[in-house]
Predict the 3D structure of the following.
Amino acid sequence: MIDPSVFQLVCFYAFAAVTVAAALGVITLRNTVHAVLSLVLTFFSTACIWLLAEAEFLAIALIVVYVGAVMVLFLFVVMMLDINQERVREGFIKYLPVGIIVALVMLGEMLALIGVRAMHEKVMGDNPATVAGMSNTEWLGHALYTQFLLPFEIAALILTVGVVAAVVLTLRQRTGVRHQSASQQVLVNPRDRIRVVKMAAVAPAAPQPAPGKETTP
Amino acid sequence: MGEQILNQIIWPVVYILCIVLPLVIAVAMFVYWERKVIGWMHVRMGPNKIGPLGLLQAFADVVKLLLKEVILPTSANKVLYYLAPMLALVPALAAWAVIPFNDKLVLANVNAGVLYLLAMTSLGVYGIILAGWASNSRYALLGAMRSAAQVISYELAMGLCLVCVLVLAGSLNLTDIVHAQAGHKGILDWFMWPLLPVFIIYFVSGVAETNRAPFDVAEGESEIVAGFHVEYSGSAFALFFLAEYANMILVSFLASILFMGGWLSPFPASWGLIGQGSFFWLFAKAFAFAFLFLWFRASFPRYRYDQIMRLGWKVFIPITIVWVLVAGCMKYFGWVTVGTGG
């Protein structure tokens, strides 16, 4: 039977290959909707890789936040745009040098980060979650809400400010717009709107249809 | 070696089939039940011609759908058009992996079960959006747009409701959440009492998430014909249908598990046989919730689009945010005594 660690390695390479292929698809596919869907696949396979690394909270948060919400909005916008496919590709050669420079800088930064991590490996020791005997999610919760409470709250505050700012920026005051106020609507007294008229019932004096003859409605 | 393959591959597949096949049959019977119930509420008979009491009506419909031709609209995006129904169905079925039917009976007893459920239910919207876009039809696109905005809005409220349950239960594992509701007082130990507003909001958001009446603007017949699946026919349409009803049953099960003690009995354990937990209780609770879906559909007129958005953003989300704080205080100061001594 297959050795579990070998199987894990095979899975890692399979997910990594899908991630890279999908990421390439994002920048090469002509159809913008296909490109967005490739980005979704990139996120999804990245989440799978994180699951292999036993970071299940990050993996599922990636799917919930990015795949489930952010990319849906992305797709929403891209579908609404009537993009001229030819024009999108026009500047490809022109911007290629800038793109290559950005990619190289990012590669350098990532390599530096990997180097720092590798040197720290001896200092950091074992996975703190396994040492504490908790699941990754549980340990993350404990660390965030005790040790890192202040940075966490500051991040939340910045995000809230960002939300308020986005709403304020897009809020346009237009004149002549008809609004409905639900709170006023429910306060309406039925007696102001409808008048019940009492009328005495009167028997109709209509002639009875002749027997045996069917009336068509 | 052969035994290992049997344990690792064959048995999980058998277990998965043991969940999915009854689910598909349950969907068929649920459709029959829906037509019957709505018929009675309209003072009609409902289906009564095929089979005894019309019981075979759903299967006749399935056969009809499978035999019909799947039509591809002109200049539709072929790949995405065929992919969309599958993308709608797969998350609807995958979410069932973590549902515990009783103490032991669960396919995957994972610790991050609630997170997994959130992830799976948030993926279902892709099927709807892509169906709307790939059909190359204005009605379908409008339906997809409405659905995407609605699902994202109500997912927030739903997520915050789950946070309240997590705070009280102290676990993300669905089996542990049910165990946290076990106690001597039966029904009084369930989370629905301390979390009553959240419980109601959760179920209403569930109705909105599944695009059911009165939140069914995504397929509002009077405005946009049938919404996102207007161009679909035959088996492709059947897949959308299956996904929608599987999601309804899933929401019913989840509401029972998270707020009404799952398989636990509503009576105290000292009452003998009816005080014992069993999956029959879970099915009875889920059936009651599923009936509510039908009751809503027969009773309420459809919400207008801006009313749906107002309800989601201005009513549900503020209430759930406040109740997260209340639930935190309940847990911290020990105000509630649900699930004491299971």
Summary: The first helix of chain A runs from residue 4 to 28. Chain A has a mean pLDDT of 81. The radius of gyration of chain A is 32 Å.
